[in-house]
Amino acid sequence: MTAPVALIVAGLGFVAGVPHGAADHVIATRLAGGKSMVLVAGVYACVAAGAWSLLQWADPTALILAVALSALHFGLGELEVVHRLAGWRPSLWVALSIVIAGSGALVLPLARCGDQLRAVATTVSPALASAVGWAPLQTGLVVVWLVAALVAIVGSLRSSHPAVALDIVIVGAVGMLAPPLVAFAVWFGGWHALRHCGRMLSIEPGCAALLTAGHPRTAVLRLIRLAAMPSLAAWTALAVLGWFTVAASIPTAVVAAVLRLLLALTVPHALVVLWLDRTTARRDRRAELRSGITPRGTS
Questions:
Q1: Is residue 236 part of a domain?
Q2: pLDDT at residue 1 above 80?
Q3: Using CA atoms, how far apart are residues 53 and 190, in angstroms rounded to an integer?
Q4: Which of 55, 59, 212, 243 is the one with CA 20 to 30 A from 65?
Q5: Residue 34 — φ and ψ, nearest 5°?
Q6: 293 lies in some domain
Q7: CB atoms near residue 217 (< 10 Å)
Q8: pLDDT tens digits along 142-195
Q9: What is the number of structural domains in the chain?
Q10: Within-domain flag for 254
Q11: 132 is in which domain, residue-wise?
């Protein structure tokens, strides 16, 4: 895949992934106990703006923290899929391994750091690009991922959950075989984002009610309407950034600007999802205790 084509595919993947967090204001308002949606959306926007400012002027510390938060968010997203779709709550070590293995589409491309990714990383942060290109760090990331993937695969197979093992294999194959930048972007837009949207359909009260009533198409349309305006705002920001960077004739700066904005948006998004996960887990534990079922936590 040539560099221009890779950058185009990567850009499309990033853009496709934007709507998956665009209903956060609805979820956060519900979690906040019915506080004003305008207030909640304002706080969300301020956190994103603050994160973007730090990414601009606190390089590379803020960028490292944002990437680490993103990896945790992606890994926890895969673990949540295991909980919700497979109905399995693995033991602590297997769960931790699934979280690490689930971030493979970010960790493995970073470890490989090809010319395309290095060029974009240098535009975003020369200091971070130099660190990512350090051979011992690259080897360490691959080793940690492989060990975690092995533990997660063995644990899932022993617990009769082969679909979980297959997911890890797919994530690893994408991270290992596709061009690094393309691997992450395609996974982000075509895997992580779609799974998160699927979860939102079952959590947002209106969408959940429509699904229960047997109207999945209407539920999807409702979620699209809820996410439309925030998605449009994010896409507009990306388009403006892209216009200025293209006008400056710096091709990699387009993707770099998109990455920086996505990382900034990831901060409040990841915090809302963590809040949602904790609230959901507490609710599930209370329901299990009320029903007299021993809380799940073993493999």
A1: yes
A2: no
A3: 28
A4: 243
A5: 85, 15
A6: no
A7: 8
A8: 999 999 999 999 999 999 999 999 999 999 999 998 888 888 888 999 999 999
A9: 1
A10: yes
A11: 3-284
